[in-house]
């Protein structure tokens, strides 16, 4: 279409029609408009991603232009793909133009936890399916012999994923050569410095060549991020992408509810929620500590509800396998312990930072420093100082050094398609709550967060179910409401008539009574022993025989408590009116005895095993071969 010339012989601007203007202004960015390699777009189409998220649409063009970036976006907004897409695209373009050596480490991705390193590696594998021969990525956090890691690094992979301590170790030994690096990414930048990596990061930064592109991804913009920016962005100030205002205007996908409950009623509610299917889909249950994980697992087993446990005590391979199978739909319920939230734990970890290796200790979550909630953070830290080490059970003090600091459940791990986050025990701070509920309502999907809290007057009213973390639930809940209101979110009371559960109370008492401290300790020891065997000795076998993986289920029954078959079924008289229609099976049946086998046959088999009822010597044998003239039993 030709445009008219004005008096100065310059083409006049075309005034679009109303419909055309609407299309131009309202059009949303697509992956095709980001000018990514066709092979990346193929993988995106296969994964059924319709359009880029806000952080991806803003980050990818800037990263492709080579600029340093500091991006802040909420958990679950797609930050990992926001830096992976431009890095993979750039490597493919350079290899196609042959401007660099065919084998050279082009990108170094630094992450705080081993789980996140494994997740990023898996994501790279997914989106390089159609260019797998051109892109090689190696994860340095695997538990393997150093000679194997050295051999993998000497092959010069294109992308290296590591924690800062591992990367610094291999750079110092001159195996990981940073000379050809073009991209450095620090994922979860606001957490990296909280793990005791200061010296490692300084060592890495000093070894980087000039002109390296730096991308920092974070859920918050705090003082830790500023120090990393000055350390790695040597060429100048990075482009800052703060998407908090844009995210606040988006329609809320997360519904948040709270329930005021006594300590023992928590167990009654979780039993009713799972047995009556009040919440459907995959659920993550967050609890205060590791013992609490197994107590709830054993409690639910009494009613035939299967679940698996996730905590820092388990081997890394076992944790990764659990998360992977949960994402694939093998399990519906994960009971997770965020160990850093144990009251008094933060102080102990800070004291042991200088003496423990970052690779062999547990996560250290720093709860101070975000500008918008500075006053609330000060109050939280004061409360922790008041509580001190006196609140922490002696067993936790003894075991603090044996757990894994590079472990985090509430942040980093990509739990997919989670319908609900159930805070069985309220966290110790509003920030921890925010990170916990970020496990659901991800990537535009809807989700629900349900939290139990114990009022002050009901604390320590039921000794066997009491945990010290619940002492300040009301105070923590006020901070949670304040923070969520600042972000435009609402925390409502869950409308549920608990009087309809009165008939279930006698079952609750039976189940809680059977879950003793000894049973919890036995279940914890048994699972740890079994997971260690599965994680080490059988690793190679199951890699070669994947069909045998069914034997590695993590939600098997512990059998640490006496089985009570009548608890597995819900009698009809206990159900509220209209409740029968909601339950698909096991309604109105109370199993008293299993009659699937013949009683006489079963008794014969039992006696046979004990040695009774054996056939006499020579009976039933060939009479011609067993003929004995001297008589039976004589030789």
From TrEMBL:
Its keywords, alphabetically, are: ATP-binding, Helicase, Hydrolase, Nucleotide-binding, Nucleus, Ribosome biogenesis, RNA-binding
Motif Q motif extends across 29-57
**Protein name, entry field:** RNA helicase
Q: What is its EC number?
A: 3.6.4.13
Q: Biased composition, Acidic residues: where in the chain?
A: 357-380
Q: Name one GO cellular component term.
A: cytosol
* One Pfam family recorded for the sequence: Helicase_C
Q: Which organism is it from?
A: Cladosporium halotolerans
């Amino acid at each position: 279409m030709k445009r008219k010339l004005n008096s100065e012989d310059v083409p006049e601007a075309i005034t679009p029609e109303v419909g055309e203007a609407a299309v131009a202004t309202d059009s949303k960015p697509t992956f095709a408009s980001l000018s990514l390699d066709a092979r990346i777009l193929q993988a995106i189409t296969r994964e059924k991603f319709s359009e880029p998220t806000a952080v991806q649409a803003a980050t990818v063009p800037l990263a492709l232009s080579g600029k340093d970036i500091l991006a802040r976006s909420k958990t679950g907004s797609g930050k990992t793909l926001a830096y992976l897409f431009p890095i993979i695209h750039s490597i493919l373009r350079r290899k196609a133009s042959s401007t660099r050596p065919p084998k050279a480490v082009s990108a170094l991705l630094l992450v705080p936890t081993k789980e996140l390193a494994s997740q990023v590696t898996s994501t790279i594998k997914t989106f390089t399916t159609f260019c797998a021969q051109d892109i090689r990525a190696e994860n340095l956090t695997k538990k393997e012999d150093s000679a194997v890691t050295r051999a993998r690094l000497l092959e010069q992979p294109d992308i290296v994923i590591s924690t800062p301590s591992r990367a610094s170790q291999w750079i110092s030994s001159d195996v990981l050569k940073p000379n050809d690096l073009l991209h450095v990414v620090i994922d979860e930048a606001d957490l990296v410095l909280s793990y005791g990596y200061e010296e490692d990061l300084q060592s890495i930064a000093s070894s980087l060549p000039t002109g390296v592109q730096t991308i920092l991804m974070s859920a918050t913009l705090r003082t830790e991020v500023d120090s990393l920016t000055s350390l790695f962005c040597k060429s100048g100030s990075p482009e800052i992408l703060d998407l908090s205002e844009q995210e606040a205007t988006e329609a809320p996908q997360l519904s948040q509810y709270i329930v005021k409950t006594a300590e023992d009623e928590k167990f009654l509610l979780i039993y009713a929620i799972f047995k009556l299917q009040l919440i459907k889909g995959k659920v993550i249950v967050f609890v205060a500590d590791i013992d609490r994980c197994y107590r709830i697992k054993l409690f639910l087993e009494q009613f035939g509800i299967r679940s698996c446990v996730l905590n820092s005590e388990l081997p890394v391979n076992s944790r990764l396998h659990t998360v992977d199978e949960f994402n694939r739909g093998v399990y519906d319920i994960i009971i997770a312990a965020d160990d850093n939230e144990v009251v008094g734990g933060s102080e102990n970890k800070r004291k042991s930072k200088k003496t423990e290796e970052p690779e062999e200790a547990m996560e250290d979550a720093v709860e101070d420093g975000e500008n918008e909630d500075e006053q609330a953070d000060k109050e939280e830290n004061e409360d922790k100082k008041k509580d001190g080490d006196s609140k922490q059970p002696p067993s936790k003090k003894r075991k603090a050094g044996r757990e894994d600091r590079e472990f985090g459940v509430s942040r980093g791990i990509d739990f997919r398609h989670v319908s609900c986050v159930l805070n069985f025990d309220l966290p110790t701070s509003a920030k921890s709550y925010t990170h916990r509920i970020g496990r659901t309502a991800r990537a535009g999907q809807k989700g629900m967060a349900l939290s139990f809290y114990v009022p002050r007057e009901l604390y320590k009213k039921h000794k066997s179910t009491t945990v010290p973390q619940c002492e300040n639930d009301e105070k923590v809940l006020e901070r949670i409401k304040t923070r969520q209101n600042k972000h435009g979110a609402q925390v409502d009371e869950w409308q549920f008539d608990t009087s309809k559960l009165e008939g279930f109370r006698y079952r609750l008492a039976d189940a809680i009574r059977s879950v003793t401290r000894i049973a919890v300790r036995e279940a914890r020891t048994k699972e740890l022993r079994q997971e260690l065997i599965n994680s080490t000795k059988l690793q190679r076998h199951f890699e070669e025989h994947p069909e045998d993986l069914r034997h590695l289920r993590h939600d098997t029954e512990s059998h640490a408590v006496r089985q009570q078959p009548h608890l597995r079924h819900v009698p009809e008289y206990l159900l509220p009116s209209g409740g029968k229609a909601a339950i698909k099976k096991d309604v109105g049946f109370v199993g008293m005895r299993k009659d699937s086998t013949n009683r006489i046959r079963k008794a014969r088999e039992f006696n046979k095993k004990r040695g009774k009822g054996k056939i006499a010597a020579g009976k039933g044998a060939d009479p011609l071969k067993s003929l004995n003239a001297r008589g039976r039993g004589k030789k």
